[in-house]
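Aggregate trends can hide what the representation actually does to any particular protein. The sequence in question and its structure tokens are set out directly beneath this paragraph.
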Amino acid sequence: MKKEKIKSILISQPRPESLKSPWFDLEKKYKLKMDFRPFIMVEPISGKEFRQQKVNILDYTAIILNSRNSVDNFFRICTELKVEIPIELKYFCVNESIANYLSKYIQVRKRKIFIGKGTETELFPLFKSHSSEKYLFPCSDWRKQDIEKFMKKSKIAFKEAFFYRIISSDLSDLTHVNYDIIAFFSPADIRSLFENFPKFKQNKTLIAGFGATTLKAIIDSGLEANIQAPTPQTPSMITAVDKHIETHNKSV
């Protein structure tokens, strides 16, 4: 069967707000039909549901924040439960972007904020340097367990608490739409795919996956992960997709 050039890609994330996104450079480079569609949505849990976890926020001296969702929902729950956050509370942010986002809720210059280099595991040296703190991790029901495992191993006081949940989007309008590539970024994306399309067959569609847990979910669901990131050669999803399309289209 004759191979054809890759002409379309579906990205399971929201459309970038900036027109300077490298995704749009890729779109122009290969004249792609490029669609962005979040496969998952964030659903805040209520204060009543949060109380059922029997977590007293004021028992903790440090908060771990790994996303804007964790920031928004932490402060939302505090407001809903009328928790007055002490100025001494320490914030451990996975990257500088999350640290800057804190300014939406607090005066950053007056708080103790510690910043990682981009991933949760890169926070570990900071946790070790501040091992006497009592850490609270506001997260969703879909999260990696790297932090929990590290804290247990290091015998550092730590508690996960669900502040929001991840639910599948309604993708029913995509029933008869086919793409040459579908790019996934989390295991929850794969769950959403099969909740929306239980009989999904990969056929000629190329599947791209970012991160070890996403790749595992792809394989466990019986699909083939054709494009993988990050790797030493392709540290981002964009570079992985770019390299694959270039190689594929040259062979056509």
Remarks:
- The CA atoms of residues 140 and 165 lie 5 Å apart.
- The chain is about 30% helix and 20% strand.
- The mean pLDDT is 94.
